[in-house]
Each structure stands twice: as structure tokens, then as C-alpha cells.
Amino acid sequence: MEELIRKMLAELGENPDREGLRRTPERVAESLGFLTSGYTEDIDKLLDGSIFEEEYDEMVIAKDISLYSLCEHHLLPFYGECHVAYIPKGRIIGISKIPRLVHVFARRLQVQERLTNQIAKTLMDHLKPYGVAVTIEATHLCMAMRGVRKRDARIITSAMLGAFRTDPKTRMEYLELIKSGSRAE
Ligand SMILES: [Zn+2]
Question: Same domain for 27 and 51?
């Protein structure tokens, strides 16, 4: 990896041996390793020890989870907030596991649409709740920095499963709850 990054620096017209760049290949390799560490995380292990039986059947929402990922088309970051909701069917999940699950999928090369679906589907499969909703609002640096679109263009994606898909009232309630007090830019 370090050798590839050295080559890339040279290819960009830089001198990889100048002082400021000397340790860059090592740093980039380490940082990319971390930013893609989601490939090796064991999701079953992460979730299954943290699912508990509980007679609670109202909507649970984890709001404004900060999200940083890399777009697979340009290897540039996209970042923003993720909201995750579910309606338990006799089983709840330790609340800290929801952001961790978001981070596992975010630390891979992604497109925002797939990232949204993966989070929703994984929770649906493991928790078997009445429904799961995931919304991601993110700014893509590949758009902002390359001037393809407006600098502040935000992309919003959502995945609605189970009751969130079939019951308009549930979906509305969710959309109201994620809207209120949502972080303004
Ligand atoms: Zn991109």
C-alpha cells in the first residue's frame, strides 16, 4: 500500500522524498486501513450479544448519529447524520449498538443508497421488529470539491421496512420525529 501511495504522489507531479511527504505513504495507508476497517468487523458478534427480550412496542429512534464514509466512485468522503428507528416486537437492542452498526457499514467504500439499505436490512434480520427506518443526510465532497453541484448540496436517502413501509401513520410519525430539532446547517 505504501509503495502504491508513493507512486501516486509521483504521478501527481510531487516529489515523494521531500520532507513534508516523506511519511505520507505510511500515514495514508494507516488512515485508509482505519476508514475501511468495517470489512473485517463481525456483525453477528456485534449485535447478537446485545439483543434483549423486552415488552416494549413503541418506536425507538437513534437520531443524529454522525456518519463519515468514503464514496466508492471517487474515494472521497461523504459525511452527515444518520437516523435509525425501529418498532420492537418483544426484543430490543442495546442502544449503543446502533451507532456502532452504522460505523461498521460506513467504514467501507460505499454509495449512500447501499449504506442506508445495509443498516436497515441488518437490523431487520437480527431484531425481527415490526419495522425499521433509516435516513441518511449527507454532503458528498466529490460533488462539493469538484464543483459538480452546489457546494451545500445534501443527499437524503431512506430505507423503510415493515410497518414503516406499509403504515403511512407510522412513517409520518417517524418523519416528524427526525425533523424536529434536527441539526440545522
Ligand atoms: Zn463520489
Answer: no
What is the per-residue pLDDT across 54-106, written as a single tens digit (0 to 9) for each? Answer: 999 899 999 999 999 999 999 999 999 999 999 999 999 999 999 999 999 99
Q: What range defines the domain where residue 29 resides?
A: 2-35
Residue 39 and residue 108 in contact, taking contact as beta carbons nearer than 8 Å: yes
Asked if 109 and 46 sit in the same domain, the reply is yes
Q: In this structure, which residues have their CB less than 5 angstroms from ion ligand 1? A: 71, 73-74, 142
Please check whether residue 149 is in contact with residue 143, taking contact to mean a CB–CB distance below 8 angstroms.
yes
pTM, rounded to two decimals: 0.92
User: In this structure, is residue 61 part of a structural domain?
Assistant: yes
Between the CA of 143 and the centroid of ligand 1 the distance, in Å, is: 7
Q: Using CA atoms, how far apart are residues 101 and 119, in angstroms rounded to an integer?
A: 7
Task: Give the catalytic positions in this structure.
Answer: 71-74, 112, 140, 142
How does pLDDT run across 8-52, given as a tens digit for each residue?
A: 999 999 999 999 999 999 999 999 999 999 999 999 999 988 999
Residue 65 C-alpha to ligand 1 middle, in angstroms? 21
141 CA → ligand 1 middle, Å: 7
Residue type (1 letter), 45: K
- Same domain membership, residue 86 and residue 55: yes
Grid coordinates of 160:
423503510
State in Å: Cα 77 to ligand 1 middle: 8
CB-CB contact of 3 with 25 (8 Å):
yes
